Amino acid sequence: MMACAVRRRIRRAWQFVFDCDHAAYARRSEELTYVANTIMTGCALQGRSFTAQEAAVAVCNLGLENWPPLWRSAKSLPDDFLVNHDLITVFQVGWTVLHKDVGMYAAERLQEVLAGLRCDDCNVHTGLDALRIELSTCCRAGMP
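RE: above sequence
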């Protein structure tokens, strides 16, 4: 039930662009293929790889749900949003949210856990310290 509600926005926008602008629909379809392939290379869902549609729709929907307020004229996005906005940008917004709110958040919490771990085994302790330092360096670079 929740998954259906989450995808309503992208489905409404997708249907509108299909019904109203065939050229924009063709461009969005090509972009959907691109973003689907990007996600499928590194993600899984319930122990299996995402399907192309699940991958692309999930990140694009996240992008629509988090579309920057400064980039829109109304509180919610209109149904015709995809007529004039490309899916690559929608995908990039969604991917940025995933990176910041999932990847970076998890890496920062792991740093905190590693900082508090103590181990009597010198080799394990040295390895944990090395991991914490490397993770810290990667986080500062924005690439955990």
